[in-house]
Design goal:
alpha/beta, TIM Barrel, 8-stranded parallel β-barrel
């Protein structure tokens, strides 16, 4: 069954239920040899950054596979890299349901999941069981009840646990669904956090014999001075990449639609222009000193191209997959690789 045929059935379900049904169905189909599978991208499609060779520039954004339970299933869809998480040191249930809402007319989703996950120890076990040997990013965060002044402890705890398994690690300081988390994007807080994490990375690199790249994921709801301040700190601490962007707390593009007043982060088509603007401003401020990974509102191959033209080196997908399914991955790879 193609995704176009399955989507009406999935959209009849609660969005979070549909999310789990989709992933479990893909896993079942893979086990019986019926799941969609993309062939390898041509060598010319590869990108080299952060000291990593990416087979193609189209990746899976964090949030779809929070616990690393579906790595092998998702790897069949043609992504050049996968990012799992966000994971926290301790398991936590996240916010009460319902906490995910489709806005179909706008091709958008609002979510207030709240870093629901099984905890870093279980995620590590899941990754160790996976057969996938491609590029794997692991996105880390803090527990909801960890005071902001102790946030660095949570990030360090996760970094230590996932270090040996990750191709790169993303520091998520931009989810709108963990209270006050975005305050870590402020200059003083970010300076202190990055100082701690880069120091810990140096110690881990000496212990493991390899330096795992660190990326930082930022919000779309930043003005130019904030973006420039963040860019300066990323350069100061020699961070390896920046991911732009997370979901937005604005409601541009969904005015008058059902669920527009639900709390949480908005993703999908209405986020595209705002996220692309942040990519462009970051790329200008960074002047090529570190790469930008563009995410937000990619619903077609042309949207992926727009992010690259704005200065991104790679792109990531999530909400577009809800509306387009696996065909979106192939379309974006084709657009960016000339196939």
């Amino acid at each position: 069954m193609t995704y176009a045929l399955a989507r009406p059935l999935l959209f009849a379900l609660d969005p979070e239920t549909a999310h789990h049904v989709t992933l479990r169905s893909l896993r079942f189909l893979a086990r019986i040899g019926l799941a969609p599978a993309a062939g390898p991208a041509p060598a010319a499609c590869a990108r080299e950054l952060m000291g990593i060779r990416f087979p193609n520039p189209v990746g899976l954004a964090a949030g779809l596979d929070k616990n690393g339970e579906y790595i092998d299933t998702l790897a069949r869809l043609g992504f050049g890299f996968l990012e799992i998480g966000t994971v926290t040191p301790r398991p936590q249930p996240g916010n009460p349901r319902p906490r995910m809402f489709r806005i179909r007319a706008a091709r958008a989703v609002i979510n207030r999941m709240g870093f629901n996950n099984v905890g870093v120890d279980q995620l590590v076990e899941n990754v160790q069981r996976a057969r996938y040997r491609g590029v794997l990013g692991i996105n880390i965060g803090k527990n909801f009840d960890t005071p902001l002044e102790r946030a660095a402890d949570d990030y360090v705890a996760c970094l230590r646990k996932v270090y040996s398994l990750a191709s790169y690690v993303t520091v998520n300081i931009s989810s709108p669904n963990t209270e006050n988390l975005r305050r870590l994007q402020g200059a003083a807080a970010l300076d202190a956090l990055l100082s701690t994490l880069m120091s810990e990375r140096r110690a881990l690199a000496a212990r493991h014999g390899r330096s795992v790249p660190l990326a930082v994921k930022i919000a779309p709801d930043l003005d130019r001075p904030q973006i420039e301040a963040i860019a300066a700190l990323l350069r100061k601490h020699a961070v390896d990449a920046v991911i732009a962007t997370n979901t937005t707390v604005t409601r541009e593009g969904v005015s008058g639609q059902p669920h527009e007043h639900e709390a949480g982060g908005l993703s999908g088509a209405p986020l595209k222009a705002r996220a692309t603007s942040v990519v462009r401003q970051l790329a200008q401020a960074l002047a090529g000193k570190l790469p930008v990974i563009g995410v937000g509102g990619i619903m077609a191959g042309a949207d992926a191209r727009e992010k690259i033209d704005a200065g991104a080196s790679l792109v990531q997908l999530y909400t577009g997959l809800v509306y387009r399914g696996p065909a979106l991955v192939r379309e974006c790879v084709s657009e960016l690789c000339g196939r």
